[in-house]
Amino acid sequence: MSTFDPTTKTNRRGFLSATAATAGTLALARSVHGRGAAAPKALKMGVIGVGWYGMVDAMAALKVGGVEVTAVCDVDSEHLNAAADQLEKLQGKRPATYKLHAEMLKKADLDVVAIGSPPHWHALQLIDCIKHGLDVYEEKPLAYDIREGRAMADCVSKSDRIVQVGFQRRQSAAFKQAAAAVKAGKIGQLVQADVQIHHRAGTKDTTPQAPPAALDWDLWCGPAPKIPYSPQVGHKSWRLETTTGHGHLVDWGIHNVDATRMMLGLGMPNRITAAGGIYHLQGKITTPDTLTVHFDFDRLPVVWRHRLWGATEYNPEVNNGVFLYGDEGTIFVSDQKWVFVPTGKSAQREEHTAPADLGALHMANFLDCVRTRKQPDCQIEQGFQATATVQLAMIAYESASVVQWDSKTEQILHNPAAAKLLKREYRKPYVHPYQG
Ligand SMILES: NC(=O)c1ccc[n+]([C@@H]2O[C@H](COP(=O)([O-])OP(=O)(O)OC[C@H]3O[C@@H](n4cnc5c(N)ncnc54)[C@H](O)[C@@H]3O)[C@@H](O)[C@H]2O)c1
After folding, report:
1. Neighbours of 50 (CB within 10 A)
2. Mean pLDDT for the stretch of residues 350-363
3. 10 Å Cβ neighbour count for 342?
4. 40: pLDDT confidence band, cut at 50, 70 and 90?
5. Domain count, the chain
6. Are residues 192 and 275 located together in one domain of the fold?
7. Measuring from atom 5 of ligand 1, which residue has the nearest CA?
8. How confident is residue 15, by pLDDT bands cut at 50, 70 and 90?
9. Best label site of 184, 212, 258, 364, fewest CB within 10 Å?
10. For ligand 1, what atom is nearest to the CA of residue 52?
């Protein structure tokens, strides 16, 4: 058992001096804006889970600069070796490789860690990183269940560690400009927001079979139930599996739900209804391919919709984004663009584009905060609220009931069946981090 006390305020590394912090901030900013700069003292980064996005995050860190990936960890030896090869080519030094994150944290010399494992592993891994005194770039969704998220947020808030949650749309100028336009009254009174991502979900072979030799499937499942392996529930495809990714809204939709919370300064919803089902991908996936959720926030209703079977909108450009409906106009906003549609016939429709590398900006913000000890743009409490919001939608869907959420006590009211879903049993010998 670790003896680390997360309440101890310590500056672990010399790089946190004011001089280094300033140099680092400038260098990182210059690097992101493509002008190059003298490198600050390199931060040693470890990456847990080097599949798709763990490597995207590692690349973003190398693009920002001032980072060397010194260690990588994965339960699939093919992913591990491919990542080490790629990083060696890029940075000239091969990172050390580990199968177990606990071993990496014990043995590797690290300043920061990026966590790119699937969500059902996030809670245990983030808490272990904090116990080892490391700063963390934690991929979204924050956690698999709401009580894990609370345990993670509490652990981080009792420490002096910097944690950035991977909602990179918080760097989007388009979302920020749309928010400013709403605040300035451009659409009159904002009455409702609609959020959506429709897309055709690709599926793989669902036949239960032996996992690939390189993959330790028991370890991959970790605290989640050990379900039979098939390519459809393995690498990348886990997103639409109930026991791990928990579906499209929790996996991808969460980005636009979080961006809406950011734009409108929303906390968590207090009443959630959800309806949908698997109407087209029966036998392929275990989460809804068609879903509508009504989130009642204090200030307004936010409606989520998704279809995963290929139907596009009348204008496909709006398949992925957020509608902000006011009594005098509508704004549609997505990652890099926002459009104002006035209600009056004579008023002009406006289009604004704001291209940016959101992932690199979000990583730059994290690395800057590691050096300066400022708080990052997506602190863990925001990550918790965004994640818990979409998880409440899945609880409403799975319990086929209206869910009333009390944000102060973090309890589901008058609905024991739904409240049971706030925390799931861990598979032994793993121990759920929320004891309450
Ligand atoms: N911010 C974004 O836009 C964005 C986009 C895609 C994915 N993500 C997030 O990134 C994370 C990873 O998603 P992905 O698409 O890269 O999945 P993936 O399946 O491609 O990769 C996950 C990797 O983690 C490894 N892994 C599993 N259990 C592990 C463990 N206990 N220790 C170490 N490694 C382990 C797997 O073997 C695999 O290599 C998820 O949380 C996902 O939501 C974020």
Report:
1. 28
2. 97
3. 17
4. low
5. 2
6. yes
7. 53
8. very low
9. 184
10. 16
